[in-house]
Amino acid sequence: MTTKKPRGFTPGQLTVHADPGELRAVTRTLRVAGRRIAFVATMGALHEGHRELIRHARLAKGASVTVVSIFVNPLQFAPGEDLQRYPRPLEADLEMCREEGVELVLTPGVEDMYPEGADTTVVPGPLGSELEGAVRPGHFAGVLTVVAKLFHLVGPDVAYFGEKDYQQLVLVKKMARDLDFPLDVVGVPTVREPDGLALSSRNAYLSEADRPRAAALQRALRAGASVSARGPQAVLDAAREVLDAEPALDVDYLELRDPDLRPDVQQGKARLLVAARLGTTRLIDNTTIQL
Ligand code: PAF
Questions:
Q1: What is the pLDDT of residue 62?
Q2: Which of 43, 213, 225, 245 has a C-alpha 20 to 30 A away from that of 88?
Q3: Spacing, Cα 162 to ligand 1 middle (Å)
């Protein structure tokens, strides 16, 4: 197909837009020209898990342009959380995008996304106050607000989110459905270190001594999954035993829910979710379970 090349876009090359309005003009022109857009929203500090999301986006059926956003969203951090120390290695992030054939990156500033007086937000349903939302009040309102804005700016046909943040994935899917966003939201399995630790930008905070302790989360999930035929209580007990054996971990929750995160699952497909603190670092992980 011959497409008129919009300004701010060079096929086969990475173009970085700091201005959301400029990026929106480019993606609008591409859409009008019949190009399908695949999108990956990130807060930067890109790792192999993000690379996997980008690869899925590049391979999306019929999608011809991949857009990545890099924005550390202050709205999803509570006071006292790690907003200030969140890693921001922009050059390395852009290098990964280049390596993976991303053509458009959006790197807005806080004032571009939230100009003075902008105070309208997306309110999640009750699930937004459970699990992570119970420990981090307001977190998912911040996530959904920025994701809604990014969906409007980028106008993707399909967007990829990691299963590592499983509750985020469920809530973004639900928002897209409830608020009629015309796109598919697709989950991508978690990428892990050889010892099982789920990749996360926050792993950069872990000391050498903490690394093996952090992998206890994945060991707990595996222990739970290994006794899934014995029912929900056996799964929770087996996982809890592994967590209890690692005294450095301060567990926030260990829960078994259905794939949409409704509680009291007794049989069929389920999700086992865990969150714990290791010193000042918060870790989350989850796995699918067949009860
Ligand atoms: O998963 C993340 O990195 C963030 O929560 C997201 C989806 C980019 C929104 O800021």
A1: 77
A2: 213
A3: 10
